[in-house]
């Protein structure tokens, strides 16, 4: 029996460490890495316990094993041409700036494995500790480390946390060397398990729209990229519509090549700072509430430059050398793209029309998407006239789209460029003048974005491709004819919504609200409608100096965000109330029983204090030992009266023993640790007696 209990004392901390190491290992998403973490959590503890059983001192055994662990880490880093001190020193920034899931690399593995080994050794030293806290603490350290590295994705539903909690409580019940019987320990562990699982479930179901991301605390390693915007290539692709650019397999969605946010009056400029996928960065604006996801396999043919087409903001990318603009999700590779093939998964906002009816636009944090140079008077007047009568931001965008499509003509041989003078000629030039109402998708998308910004609508331009023509082998061929540019407007809730201002292109064409209901009418602006002042910014206003505009739509779910907290609190309160009621009923029944009830109260106090009497002891023996241990004399008085009452009448009555019983209970309560004193009147261990 003692051997079995010794094996259980060793197996319990090992189970806890394995559970914690599984969470930490999940960041790599490789079975061999997971097995390595499990072995690292188990082997040091077992080796340490084996060495200690041979009679080696704890200090010597721990020192040697720590040195061996450090030597192993040194050998691993030296093989990767790394310095151990530098690797350990930079382990946190490296982990928080590396793409997820992590690659199997020494500079990423050494730190977490070293932490796991040291936690295992520390736990091994404290296996025989009476408090039984160290194994739980070690598992918690590994669990928290894994959750931080994955921003909570390692255990999204809290299942591993529940297993750690249950395993810890089982160990405390069966392995605790306290004098209470196992049945009474279960009486305590049961309610604690219910409360703990309830709290974990409540936390796991919290509506966390913006979870804590440790990567935001570390600046990712950004690469400066100098590359021309592909916007200027649209004209060349339009002139050569048959040139084969790439082949695609997978979901049939438009592909994004470059997202352009900054406009200086002469041209749109692409992002210049890129980082590995998954390293975080400034997203600028929150993602929409109705995202869609697509996965495609792309094989490049005659697509020049380092830009890589994507179905949306990338979440998975097979090309490890590729970099991502943290703000827009544009993908770039510094490597040669000739014959490059890769698989990519991306997300994009795909809101229903009904969500756009009452959507507003943000008034803060959108400076870069409203930034405009000083506009010519004719363009400003055009922007104000186009949206006159529009009641909501979305109706403004629809009005701009329809007006620019109007009687304009799409021509592959139109004058190229995105400069203000070119857009002025395109929008308000007189018929017959060069470039008047004639352009490529570059001019249509740019004109939409400029007019939208002049009306306070955060906007940007995207260069990309239509899904392509289906081929006999199941792929789709994307040619120069599929290349085009389109504008997008950001709305609170829906996110980035694309539009199709180019004639004869319905890829993203959107209509009014005839089918989705009437949108609420905001207060008219100075022009009599929802003009520039009502939308958020005056034409040509500097970035960041927005006028008061529509407020963001209120999130209906925010009104119910307190429900999980209330549920968790309700579970705790219910358990406490039930325990208090059960103890109160027990005390009332004891008072009605007179001296024998008072003696039952004394025995309850001794059980709670860890001084439970032996079943074979007489009442006099128990009382004499209790008074000696507690420094009182009330237990013997109550015991004598209880014995007389058991064999004859007790003329003193029950009230005669209240002072003695209170004396014993207070003395017994003072003998327990502080954290058990507050639980004294709720402790359920005596309920099973």
Overview of the molecule:
The chain has 689 residues and is α+β, with helices and mostly antiparallel strands. 45% of the residues lie in helices and 12% in strands. It folds into 4 domains: 216 residues, no CATH class; 130 residues, no CATH class; 180 residues, C8orf32 fold, CATH 3.10.620.30; 117 residues, no CATH class. It is elongated. The chain starts with a helix and ends in a 12-residue tail after the last helix.
Write the layout of secondary structure elements.
Elements: H1 2-25, H2 31-53, H3 58-79, H4 84-89, H5 91-97, H6 106-125, H7 134-149, H8 159-175, H9 182-204, E1 223-224, H10 234-239, E2 244-250, E3 255-260, E4 262-263, E5 268-269, E6 273-276, E7 291-300, E8 307-308, E9 313-317, E10 323-324, E11 331-332, E12 341-349, H11 353-356, H12 367-370, H13 377-386, H14 393-405, E13 409-410, H15 420-428, E14 438-439, H16 441-454, E15 459-465, E16 469-470, E17 476-479, E18 483-491, E19 495-498, H17 532-535, H18 563-592, H19 595-608, H20 619-630, H21 634-647, H22 658-670, H23 674-677
Parallel strand pairs: 13-14
Antiparallel strand pairs: 1-6, 2-7, 2-17, 3-15, 4-5, 6-10, 7-12, 8-11, 9-12, 10-11, 15-18, 16-17, 18-19
Helix pairs in contact: 1-2, 1-6, 1-7, 1-8, 2-3, 2-6, 3-6, 5-6, 6-7, 8-9, 9-18, 13-16, 14-16, 18-19, 19-21, 19-22, 20-21, 21-22
């Amino acid at each position: 029996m003692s051997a079995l209990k010794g094996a259980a004392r060793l197996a319990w901390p090992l189970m806890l460490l394995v559970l914690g190491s599984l969470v930490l290992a999940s960041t790599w998403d490789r079975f061999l890495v997971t097995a390595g973490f499990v072995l690292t959590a188990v082997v040091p503890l077992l080796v340490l316990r084996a060495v200690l059983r041979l009679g080696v001192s704890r200090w010597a055994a721990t020192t040697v094993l720590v040195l061996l662990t450090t030597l192993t880490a040194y050998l691993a880093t030296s093989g990767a041409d790394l310095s151990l001190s530098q690797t350990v020193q930079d382990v946190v920034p490296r982990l928080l700036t590396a793409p997820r899931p992590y690659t199997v690399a020494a500079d990423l593995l050494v730190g977490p494995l070293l932490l796991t080994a040291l936690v295992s050794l520390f736990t091994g030293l404290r296996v025989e500790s009476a408090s039984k806290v160290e194994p739980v603490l070690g598992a918690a350290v590994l669990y928290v480390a894994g959750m931080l590295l994955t921003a909570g994705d390692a255990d999204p539903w809290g299942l591993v946390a529940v297993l750690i909690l249950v395993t810890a409580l089982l160990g405390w019940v069966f392995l605790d060397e306290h004098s209470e019987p196992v049945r009474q320990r279960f009486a305590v562990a049961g309610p604690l398990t219910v409360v703990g699982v309830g709290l974990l479930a409540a936390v796991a179901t919290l509506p966390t729209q913006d979870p804590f991301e440790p990567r935001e605390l570390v600046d990712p390693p950004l690469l400066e990229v100098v590359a021309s915007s592909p916007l200027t290539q649209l004209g060349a692709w339009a002139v050569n519509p048959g040139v084969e650019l790439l082949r695609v397999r997978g979901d049939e969605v438009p592909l994004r090549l470059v997202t352009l946010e900054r406009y200086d009056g002469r041209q749109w400029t692409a992002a210049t700072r890129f980082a590995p996928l998954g390293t975080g960065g400034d997203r600028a604006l929150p993602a929409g509430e109705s995202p869609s996801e697509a996965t495609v396999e792309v094989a490049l043919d005659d697509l020049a430059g380092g830009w890589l087409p994507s179905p949306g903001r990338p979440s998975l990318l097979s090309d490890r050398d590729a970099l991502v603009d943290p703000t827009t999700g544009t993908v770039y590779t510094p490597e040669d793209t000739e014959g490059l093939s890769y698989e990519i998964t991306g997300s994009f906002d795909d809101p229903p029309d009904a969500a756009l009816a009452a959507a507003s636009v943000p008034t803060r944090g959108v400076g870069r998407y409203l930034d405009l140079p000083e506009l010519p008077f004719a363009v400003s007047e055009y922007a104000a006239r186009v949206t006159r009568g529009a009641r909501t931001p979305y109706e403004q965008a629809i009005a701009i789209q329809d007006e620019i499509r109007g009687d304009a003509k799409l021509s592959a041989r139109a004058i190229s460029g995105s400069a203000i003078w070119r857009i002025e000629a395109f929008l308000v030039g007189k018929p017959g003048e060069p470039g008047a109402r004639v352009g490529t998708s570059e001019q249509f998308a740019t004109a939409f974005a400029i007019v939208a910004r002049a009306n306070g609508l955060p906007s940007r331009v995207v260069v990309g491709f239509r899904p392509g023509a289906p081929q006999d082998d199941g792929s789709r061929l994307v040619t120069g004819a599929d290349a085009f540019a389109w504008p997008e407007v950001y709305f609170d809730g829906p996110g980035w919504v694309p539009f199709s201002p180019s004639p004869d292109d319905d890829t993203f064409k959107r209509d009014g609200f005839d089918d989705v209901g009437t949108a609420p009418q905001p207060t008219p602006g100075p022009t009599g409608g929802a003009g520039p002042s009502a939308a958020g910014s005056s034409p040509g206003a500097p970035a960041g100096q927005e006028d008061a505009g529509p407020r963001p739509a209120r999130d209906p779910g925010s009104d119910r965000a307190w429900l999980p907290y209330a549920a968790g609190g309700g579970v705790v309160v219910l358990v406490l109330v039930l325990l208090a009621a059960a103890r109160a009923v027990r005390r009332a029944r004891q008072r009605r029983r007179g001296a024998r009830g008072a003696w039952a109260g004394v025995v309850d106090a001794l059980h709670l204090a860890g001084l439970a009497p032996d079943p074979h002891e007489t009442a006099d023996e128990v009382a004499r030992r209790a008074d000696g241990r507690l420094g009182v004399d009330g237990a013997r008085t109550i015991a004598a009266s209880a014995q007389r009452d058991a064999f004859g009448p007790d003329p003193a009555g029950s009230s005669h023993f209240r002072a003695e019983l209170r004396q014993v209970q207070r003395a017994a309560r003072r003998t327990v640790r502080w954290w058990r004193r507050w639980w004294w009147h709720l402790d359920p261990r005596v309920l099973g007696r």
